[in-house]
Amino acid sequence: MRLHRLLVYFFSAFPLVGLAQTNDFLNLFNRGKGLYLQQCFVCHQMNGQGIPSVYPPIAKSDFLNADKKRSIRILCEGQSGRIIVNGKPYEGTMPAMVLRDEEVASVLTYVHNSWGNSNGVVTVSDVQEVRKTTAYPTYELLAAVSAYPPLPKPPTGLKLREVSRLPMNGVRMTSDGSGKFLYVLSGFGDIHRVEIGSGLVRPIIFARDYLVKKAGDQGDPVIVTGMTMDKDRRLYTVINQQNNAQLPVQNVVTVYRSTEFNKTGDPVTLKPWFTTNYPGNSSYLHAAEHIGFGPDGFVYLSNGARTDGNEANGDPKYYQKGETEITACIWRLDPRHQPPLFEVYARGIRNVYGFTWSPKGEMFATENGPDAPAPEELNLIEQGKHYGFPYRFADWTNKPYAHTPDPPSGLQFTTPIPNIGPDGGFNGNQISSFDPHSCPGGIVWLGADFPEAHRGTMLLTRFGNFIREPRDAGFDLLQVRLRTNAEGRYEAGVSSFLAPLGRPIDIHQNGSGRIYILEYSRPTTPALSYSMPGRILELSVETPR
Q1: DSSP string of 430-463?
Q2: Whole-number Å distance between alpha carbons of 354 and 20
């Protein structure tokens, strides 16, 4: 009956269409229906109604019907950010669909002529015309950047599986330790719940619902970089908002904390918990990054440098005196007070992305280095110590830049843990600590729930280089084995653990011998775009048969 009504509409709307063209339309429509069931219905549902407040409707959609070329572009390039559909706001992410030109034409012909939509035929030539103006001007390029890499072979005694393919670029993961769900933070501030068993992804919190507008932040950058969960299952997120209304331009750091749970038990309703600000920078602003709870119950928050090495910006709107008292350091917050008591725990740290603790309470952190080719760092973070920035990088004694300042008299530096090989940048001589520009990220400590061969080691992700050559560095998971040298200091045996990976950015330990790896995107080299969303992998102990 539906097909009969469609044919009545089609012949009345296009009375001069020939039989061959009619057959072409029916072929497109019927093929498009099959593709819709394969690719689209999970989000937009069988009847095109979508999921209220989550996925927009495409049935009787004013957004869809207003611009046929836009609908082609969304399928070929993806869509993110706020849109209004039938008077209601939606602010999610839809990745590009890896479909050939004729498949895009088919599924859009079906969508544009179903559920009250009446937008005519989408032809292959229509798709070709729009696709060549997108970020992926050919299907072949889109397919190349969209391909998920094959799973690397895990070490003996462990197994690796794909948990879920994500609809957005994730930057952080956390969980309540139950083994049922993961919570994934996107760079836009949205939070999704991932069911570990089924891989089902569902948004639970949108940034638009909790970000508090600051004076002057209309269109100003918002950087979302950190998330954790406390023992009471409350979520915390770290938000950086640049405020151009106050001069010098300010970076406003806000830590949000959830205050309620929804009907399915997910933490929701994020409210400001801690806020501070300091001068921003138009060129560099590594800002507040990772947040986590230490074994002492305090909250630790890394806050990166506002410069690459204390240089002046030159723009009178911006602060010209390099670092401040609360930049390039790690903060410690006491959550027993409201507002939380704040102190600087350690200094001289350019850009920490991840940290973890040993069973003895020792804190270890990964640190990203400067544009100069200094090694990336692994540091043992101790209270009151200074780790060199902006006066020193890794174990270098030379100045990387003309503007690198001389250190204050009497200031002592703590150098990174040296890498004694065989991997991670070691080339016969120890390096402190990893390949330049390999971008170390999340890090975890493996305990007694892992096989004896891996206990007492650390695993860390490396996002991979993208601003410098000459070679591909990173795109992997490294294992670090610590030992004490003759001077009583740690040195690290570093070996490749999983490679290649699609820009791994975070890693999370969920207990019971399970580790979760968050791939930001899909390519395993810097040669291809890294905008296509990645996936979550589970590394677990293999059960003996």
Answers
A1: -BSSB-TT--EEEEEE--TTS-TTTTT-EEEEE-
A2: 61
Which residues of the chain, if any, have pLDDT below 50?
A: 1-20, 215-219, 470
Residues 6+ apart with CB under 8 A from 451: 157, 158, 541
Write down the pTM of the prediction.
Answer: 0.81
Laid out side by side, the sheet with 222-229 consists of: 222-229, 235-243, 250-261, 267-279
Where in the chain is CATH 1.10.760.10?
Answer: 2-144
Name the residue type at position 58: I
Q: For residue 214, what pLDDT is reported?
A: 55
Q: Quick check: 171 and 63 in contact, CB under 8 A?
A: no
With CA atoms as reference, report the closest residue to 185 among 228, 249, 242, 143: 228
Question: What class has domain 147-273+282-395+420-541?
Answer: mainly beta
- Distance between terminal CA atoms of the chain? 55
Contacts of 356 (CB under 8 A, 6+ apart): 292, 363, 364, 443, 444, 445, 458
Q: Which amino acid is at 67?
A: D
Give the number of other CB atoms < 10 A from CB of residue 422.
12
Strand-pair partners of 228: 236
The rounded distance, in Å, linking the Cα atoms of 266 and 297 is 23
Tokens 């469609």 belong to 6
Separate counts of helices (H) and strands (E) for the chain: 8, 28
Which residue spans of the chain are classified as CATH 2.120.10.30? 147-273+282-395+420-541
Which CATH number among 1.10.3720.10, 3.40.1710.10, 1.10.760.10, 3.40.50.920 corresponds to the domain 2-144?
A: 1.10.760.10
Residue that the structure tokens 């390099």 belong to:
322
Name 370's Cβ contacts closer than 8 Å, sequence gap at least 6: 308, 309, 350, 393, 400
DSSP character at residue 65: H
Backbone φ/ψ region at 529: left (φ over 0), alpha (ψ -120 to 50), beta: beta
Which phi-psi region, left, alpha or beta, contains residue 310 (left: φ > 0; alpha: ψ -120 to 50)?
Answer: left
Compute the distance between CA of residue 339 and CA of residue 197 in angstroms, rounded to an integer.
38
